[in-house]
Amino acid sequence: MPSRLLARLRRVLRPAEPDRPDAAGPNPPARPWRARLTRRRVVAGSTVVVLLAALVGWAVWPEQRSYSTTDSMITVRSGPNGDQPVDLDTTFYLPEGASSARPAPAVLLAHGFGGTKRSVSSDAQDLADLGYAVLTYTARGFGRSTGQIHLDNPDYEVRDASRLLDWLAQRPDIRKDAAGDPRVGVVGGSYGGGLALLLAAQDQRVDAIVPMITWHDLARSFLPESTGREPVDGVFKKGWAGIFFGSGSGGGLGGLGAPGGAGNPGGSSDDESGPDDESGPEGTGNEPPAGQDPVLGTVPGAVPGATPTDPACGRFAADVCAAYLRIATTGRGDPAAVELLRRSSPAGVLDRIKAPTLLVQGAADTLFPLAEADANARGIAAAGTPVRVAWFTGGHDGGEGPQTDQDRLRFLMAQWLDHYVKGAGEAPSASFTWSRIAGFDALDRGLVATGFSVADYPGVGGAATSTVGVAGPQQRIANPPNGNPAAISALPFAGGFSSLLDGVAGDLPGQHARFESAPLEHAVDVVGSPSVAIRAASPTGEAVLFVKLYDVDPTGPAALSNGLVAPVRLTGLPADIAAAVPVRVTLPAIVRRIEAGHRLRIVVASSDQGYATPAEPVTYTVALGGAGGNVGAVPGGAALTGAEVSLPTVDGTPIATPAVAWRWTLVGLLAAIVLGLVVVVAVVRRRHRRHDTSIVPGYADTPLVVRELRKEYADGFVAVSRIDFEVHRGQVVGLLGPNGAGKTTTLRVLMGLTQPTAGEIHVFGHRLVPGSPVLSRIGSLVEGPGFLPHLSGLENLRAYWRATGRKWADAHFDEALEIAGLGDSVHRKTRKYSHGMRQRLAIAQAMLGLPELLVLDEPTDGLDPPQIAEMRRVLRRYATDGRAVLVSSHLLAEVEQTCTHAVVVHKGTIVASGRVDEIVGESPSTQFDVSDDAAARAVLDRLDGVRVLPDPDGGLVVDTNGTARSEVVAELVRAGVGVDRVVPRRRLEDAFLALVGENSRGSGDR
């Protein structure tokens, strides 16, 4: 059972901790267990036990395989004469039910270079589950298999595989096309992919092949040259060659990232155990194969059946080893080495391949780039054999690629084998498919690839081309001695890392020239091999150069697609760049979307870590070599050169994936939900509007009538318990109350911002509901102003009015701006406004159109004293001509001086309402206006029971405490103090505190 599942079960089955002493008091009372056993709890507990038992049973139940496996060493005879024995370590997977009465189709599954049969074990299991009898084996020279490595030589590795077909043909449980002819497909990646192509050409019994990330011409792969020269003049790919040689002469690398069978590009299953475990007689599974030292690798002559070998060569055949040593020493190819490599290449035998071929190649592959599969496809198709090509985002440098890519390739492979080997299903399409990275998955943050398809395979030249001009001065670059230091374009097995190298450790100063384009006007989808013409001059007459195409993001790094470069060896060069002849360079095929606004950069470098370069230091001169040659000059006299980069494009149709289908399903579901909500809202609004058509006759001329209003929230909080009041024409009504009394909630309900729990609000006789047309007769400032900061004050007012849909002439902008009093500031951006300026602009917005009912929440907030005084006059004046104003404020003095009426709210209910002077009522204190304030105070201080009260306005306010006001006036006159006026003194604040209490505190308005 998996350890993670065991851990989960332990957590589930762990007994509950005993109650802590502080969990329910110092000594929580214990309940008898019988009292706790109710019928409902017994049923629930039993259900949990049954579910846990089912879970445990499912977890520990042994996995039922749909196949059986058999390990064996099979001896075959190969060599030029077919008489040299070699022992191959094999595992045979036989699907359940296969027998002589029901024979199964077979698949020969080959691993990548440096791997073993274990590298493809998971793929073998997948194919066996699909009903194929699968034979995996470790190729000669690797693992426990004997013999030497000949690089898929037709006389050795290919003949070994042909003898394995003989072994399959002898089994009665394998389907046959004829005696000795098994129904078989061959699947392999990299080294195994080359084997599949060569075997299909050599043994016509093969019914279908699926070669993946493999080569066309092994000589060109390790000695590439991008102007069309022969491999003998190619540039030695020393990085990858060294890895190949090291993995064959030492302990191996586990497959060099070669894909396995069931669409598992780049994967390897060396960490798996099971029937294909490499444990032999030693029985540990962790010991090296016989004759292999765990540190030094292969011990010469110690592998059973192998002849003694040179320590420098390991298990490589002598001719292969000698060819590598010659090339690695000189950095140049030679005819003998090229001939040896081509002997192990499908290039010369493609016309013999009659087995339908599915070619899978990776875009992230500096070892065997996309052009290798392109050449194989063209050669096989020329003989009339069915061919299909599929590119994906992985490869030797990029691994398996995203899961979407893996799923696509698994489907293509299963479809191909099912039709051509199993004989089931319709003939697969010959369409060309490819993919590119589209982004990250929202769930697991892994990469996601989008697949595309087109009916006809266009090749690396693309179905169409787009050209982009690049330019730059001719430049001198230095070739470093012995290639050190060298630029880094790619690291084997890590092609994606190359995009991080630019400006860090990529192109070295003094060793590269740059030529750039203008920003692209439109995005370009590149699918294939770009090309560009360059010129070069060298004092030695020869130059090794590396041409690269960068995608330059103006806001990010420059990206070199998968670290791919075009190595070039030019000979017969002049010493003067003016005499140089343009040479067209074909760059490696890529799949990339270059966005609009990005630039193209052509880089010509003199060194690259992955290739051998001339040992002698020398300085080259490079320039672009397009039509027209030099196109101008730059400061300093250097010639400005230009060329056009040819970009192949393919216009494909996106391929649906389960992730895409699920996204569309989710989008459809969300759209259905949104549509349902729209319908519900429309119905509700229509119903409310239908109610709006009725008018309560008694309220038709009253701006506002609130009846038994109640607002209770879902958590049970009652913001407004019961409120009843009216606002009539010509009135300025103040809504007063301590914090939390329910003022703001009442205004929110009034403006349709929230629905009341109970009660009704009528505006000019219309029942008020959200969206009601009668709201157009109300102007409001509730919960603070909100303006677009990038617009001026005037522009904000105009935008607001346009949103109302009402006539422009009805806005009364002049009156509103006069009220705001912003002057020229109305033309400034509102992000530069102070709080007071924003408040004045909000009041002007509320007054646009001169609404019949104006509702203001703290209108004087942020205003200075002169502006507050002006606001009093504005509100009083506004309430004329049949209009009305409702003001909520905590400034009682302002309400007293501004409002004609007041409504006092406390704890969600009204405690007083009416005219302001009625609420203030009779006062025990009196205000005296006298000729000499100081003399009057001295007189009053001598009177018994009479007390002078403090007054913030500086007046003389007296508490007569029962003494007749006439007696107080007489005393002042006898003392020679003139008395001008005597009025009772009671402020609204006094009445307010008397109504709600001096220490009253609300519960937090909502």
TrEMBL record:
Transmembrane parts of this sequence: 42-61, 661-684
Cross-referenced InterPro entries: AAA+_ATPase, AB_hydrolase_fold, ABC_transporter-like_ATP-bd, ABC_transporter-like_CS, Galactose-bd-like_sf, P-loop_NTPase, Xaa-Pro-like_dom, Xaa-Pro_dipept_C
Gly residues: bias regions: 255-266
Biased composition regions of type Acidic residues, renumbered to the chain: 269-280
Pfam family of the protein (one): ABC_tran
Residue numbers spanned by region Disordered: 255-306
Domain of life: Bacteria
Domain spans labelled ABC transporter: 704-932
PROSITE patterns reported in the protein's UniProt record: ABC_TRANSPORTER_1, ABC_TRANSPORTER_2
Database matches in SMART domains: AAA (SM00382), PepX_C (SM00939)
UniProtKB keywords: ATP-binding, Hydrolase, Membrane, Nucleotide-binding, Transmembrane, Transmembrane helix, Transport
Example of a GO MF term: dipeptidyl-peptidase activity
Family, similarity comment: Belongs to the ABC transporter superfamily.
Protein name according to UniProt: ABC-2 type transport system ATP-binding protein
Protein source organism: Plantactinospora soyae
